[in-house]
Write a structure and sequence with these properties.
The protein is α+β, with helices and mostly antiparallel strands. The chain contains 9 helices and 23 strands.
Length: 451
């Protein structure tokens, strides 16, 4: 009698969607349905958001990772199934380049380090191919192989509760015959869900406009996604939110969304598309550009480099507070670096900002008359001041300096939910107890099969 030997597989894939449709998380559900009876999932599928500044990404720059236990003799069969699912699912497009990587057993340190760099840097396809060839059990790609980058990052970023923050997202999917049509959602049920489950859920409603944010706008298969702190709360949210069309499937993902994980590994280096975190002293008054964008200049304290700092119009109240900064103020800037070749300037596009020092500013005005206490006026160039009321004159009396009352305070500024990138930690998550473990729930995914 031959005993069945089990092995651990780590599977990562990316770049299977396009701006015209499809969704990497949807492909994950298709794959789960294909392999579920042959494997044991040791973790929820991980939705890993990487450097949000990469110019050739789709909106969220998200990759998918699986960790499964599987009988040794089924390994090749399951890998073939996944490859076939990718080939059948992705839509050929010049900007869509799927990649799949598979690691057996322990994850190599080089892949773990690669995943940290993927949060903040621009990584090359060539490096990802070298790592996949040397350190993976199997790898596969279509096109130029850019999807290997996200695949490796999703495997290496295991969101270990001992040292990484994480959240959950339950994503629901539409029937294929409804792709491209308007999503029919009972919005009042979303307000009810958010009110009942807060702060265990976040970024469902924009705090400034009261707009419901859980539905995407494009033709992709996602109906809605709800983000939160515990998997149980995701299922509770699912039970509260009402749709006016049948759902095809849902799945709970464990994710780095809303964690600031990219800022955990960021620093003050200024490189195009790199994630930035650092102390800056403001050196210019703000400029308001056409469209409402706010631009300032500042000196990075660590390396004394001069940079532009930008807060864009969709950030509303956040942008308005940034426009109150003045020379001498100091901030911790969090954002992405963009290089303007024409002007040879680097701009930090703010994702959040902490005001840590507010400088004193003054304006000068004419002094009060020492005789009648009325405001004096200038007597002419270098002639001092005179009082129109009582006629008193003094050629030596100076102007007085009055401290300006600043309209800002030391605080952490975060854009409203509708202007936040996926990785940014929202106000609602501050002060919550750290999660110590991953708890599996039953029915963490489901295919409705036209019930």
């Amino acid at each position: 009698m031959t005993l069945q030997r089990d092995t651990i597989l780590h599977i990562g894939f990316d770049d299977t969607d396009s701006l015209q449709g499809s969704c990497t998380t949807h492909l994950a559900v298709i794959i789960i349905e294909e392999i579920d009876r042959q494997v044991t999932f040791l973790d929820y599928p991980r939705l890993i958001r990487n450097n949000p500044n990469i110019p050739w990404k789709t909106r969220g720059n998200g990759a998918i990772g699986f960790t499964i236990k599987i009988a040794e003799e089924k390994v090749n069969q399951v890998i073939v199934t996944i490859k076939r699912s990718i080939e059948n699912y992705y839509q050929p497009d010049e900007n869509t380049n799927p990649g799949l990587v598979v690691v057996k057993g322990n994850i190599p340190e080089i892949i773990k380090e690669f995943s940290k760099r993927a949060l903040i840097e621009v990584l090359s396809i060539e490096e990802s191919k070298e790592i996949a060839t040397s350190h993976c059990f199997d790898h596969y790609f279509i096109g130029n192989g850019r999807g290997l980058i996200g695949g490796l990052a999703a495997i290496g970023n295991i969101l270990n509760p001992r040292n990484e923050d994480f959240t959950y997202e339950i994503i629901t999917y539409r029937s294929s015959d409804l792709f491209g049509t308007k999503r029919r959602l009972d919005k009042e049920s979303v307000y009810e869900m958010d009110k009942k489950l807060a702060p265990e859920v976040f970024n469902n409603i924009d705090e400034e406009t009261n707009k419901v944010l859980i539905c995407p706008a494009g033709p992709d298969p996602v109906f809605y996604g709800i983000r939160g702190e515990e998997a149980e709360k995701m299922l509770e949210a699912l039970s509260i939110v009402k749709t006016l069309e049948p759902l095809d499937a849902y799945c709970i993902f464990r994710t780095n969304q809303g964690t600031d994980q990219h800022f955990k590994y960021a620093d003050e280096r200024i490189e195009n598309y790199r994630v930035f975190k650092g102390d800056i002293e403001i050196t210019s008054k703000p400029r308001i550009l056409l469209g409402g964008h706010v631009i300032l200049q500042g000196i990075i304290e660590e390396n004394k480099k001069l940079v532009d700092i930008a807060a864009f119009e969709p950030s509303k109240n956040f942008k308005q507070k940034i426009s109150k900064l003045l020379p001498g103020d100091k901030i911790i800037a969090y954002g992405g670096v963009k290089y303007n070749q024409e002007h040879e300037t680097h701009t930090i596009q703010l994702e959040k900002c902490e005001i840590i020092f507010i400088s004193d500013h003054y304006y000068e005005t004419s002094p009060l008359c020492p005789k009648c206490n009325k405001r004096m006026t200038s007597a002419g160039l270098n002639k001092g001041h005179k009082c129109k009321k009582c006629g008193f004159k003094d050629s030596n009396i100076p102007k007085v300096k009055i401290k300006i009352v600043r309209e800002i305070q030391r605080e952490l500024l975060i854009p409203p939910a509708q202007a936040q990138r996926h990785l940014v930690k929202p106000h609602r998550r501050y002060g919550l107890k750290k999660k110590e473990s991953v708890k599996f729930v039953e029915n963490w995914w489901k295919k409705y099969l036209n019930e």
